[in-house]
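Q: Structure tokens for this one, please.
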Amino acid sequence: MGNICFGSILIPVLGVIRGSARAVSLASGDVDEFMFSCANCCSGVASRIVAYGNRWGFVHVGVYNKRIVQASMDTWEMFKTAGMEKLIDSDLTSSFCFLSGVAAGSVCALLGGTWAIVIHMNYATEVCIYAFLTGYLTNRVAMAWVQASIMAYYVAYAENPQSQQFGNAIPAYIQELQRSLV
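A: Here is the predicted structure, written as tokens:
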């Protein structure tokens, strides 16, 4: 349980660092100004950090009872070996899960706020906030199953890409990504 708790603290922090570095890198483009002078350095550090802490490492923590850093390193190395780095970088599962949580929370806040305004206007703000948080968290718990399933599928494919059980979806998508980059 300690590895899961430590990973649950480490992974979001590293994700924010990586996201910030990607944003600075995208904002800087090919500009060579002082403000963006460290963009390449930040991007390199963020690319290296993902090897030490990524959410796909949780699969190895659960299956092999490894420590989160070692599990993340092993998982990222498997992704490199299988040629899945671009696929993993373009995965929108976590964004979809987050946005679906926000949408569910917003619907709950709208319904709860409307009910509160009709019944007792003094508590409308509190009801909206509590309804949003309840809807968001309930949806995120439900979507965690979907996200974990997709992560486990990627890790299982990376462990044995030649297996006939996986079909042709991942190799076809990797080829499509490679064509779009050329």
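A few notes: Residues 124-159 form the longest helix (36 residues). The chain has eight helices and no strands.
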